[in-house]
Amino acid sequence: MHATIATPTASATFASRALKRLGSVAALSGLLSCQVGAAASLEPDPPKVCSPCEAWNVPHEPFRVFGNTYYVGTAGLSSILIASKQGLILLDGALPQSVPLIAENIRKLGFRLQDVRLIVNSHTHYDHAGGIAALQRASGAVVAASPASAAALKQGGPTEDDPQFAFGLEHNAYPAIPALRVIADGETLRVGELAITARFTPGHTPGGTSWTWRSCEKKRCLEIVYADSLNAVSAPGFRFTGTNTLSSSISRVEMFSCDVLLTPHPDFFGMETKLQWRLQRPDENPFIDPQGCKEYAGAAQRRLDQRLEDESAQVGPGPAKQR
After folding, report:
1. Tens of pLDDT along 280-297?
2. Which of 86, 130, 234, 251 has the greatest number of C-beta atoms within 10 Å?
3. What is the pTM of this model?
4. Any alpha helices (H) in the chain, and if so which ranges?
C-alpha cells in the first residue's frame, strides 16, 4: 500500500476538503494527496516539566547520518530528517520545548521547516510526540500514525492499554493532534522521490512503529531503520507477563534489513561514541553497522527477560522512568 503526500501547490480549499476525506481516500485507493494546511509561524506549546526533561533537551548540532538522512534532534531525544527537493519527512518531535531546537537544526542544514510535508512518530509518549503539534502547525505537514498511536495523539496522551498509562494524566499529557492520517502496517508513504515504510512494533506502547527507508550517497544505497523503543518499562502494577507482544516486536526488529540503526533515544544507537569516532576517522562512517538491529534487539530481549523474571518473583514493575 502506498500513500503520496503532495507538494505545497495544493490550494487551501483542496487541503480542507482533502482532510475531511482522508479515511475514504485511503480506503478506496490507498493514496493520500493533500496538504493539511498552510504553514504558520513557529509557536511552541508550553514546556513539559519532568525530571529528565532538562537533560533530554540539551541542544545538539545537527549532522548528516548518511545520504539524505540527517539528525536534527537534541542531545537526548532523536528527531530525524529525510530530505529531497520535493519536500522533507520528519520523524518524531521530541518535547514541546524541543521544537525551536529542531527547527533551528533544520535551518542550520540549509532546509526549511515549512518544507516538511510529512511527520511520523515512533511512539506516543510526551518525549517523542510532545513537539509534533507545534511542528505540524508551523509546517502544514501531514501527520501519519498507526491506529493505536492515532488514538493517543488525538487525545494528547497514552490510551488505557499503554504500559505507562497509570502514571496519570498530568505526567503523560502532551499537546493533542486532531488532524492526522491513520496508516496500515507495511504501508509506504511518499513525499516526492522519498519513500518511508511503517513497520508496527508494539509493546513499549500499543501503537509503537519502526520506520524503514533507503538513503543513497553517490552510487551507494543503504537501508536505514528508525527502530522504536523496545523497553519493558511501565507504571506500577502493569505486567508484561502473559503477552508476547513486545517479544514479537523485538524479533521483528532483529530481522529487519538494516545497514544503519537509529532509535528514539540517541544513546541506544551510540550516537556520541560514533560521532567521536567520525572525528578521528573522517573517511569512515561509524553509523553504518549491519549488525546494529540485531544487537539492539538482543539487548532489548535480555531486558525483557529480566523484567519477566522480576515479575515472576514479584519484585515489582521495574524502574519507573520513561524511555
Report:
1. 999 999 999 999 999 999
2. 130
3. 0.89
4. 12-20, 22-29, 53-56, 99-108, 126-129, 132-139, 147-155, 169-172, 245-254, 271-280, 292-312
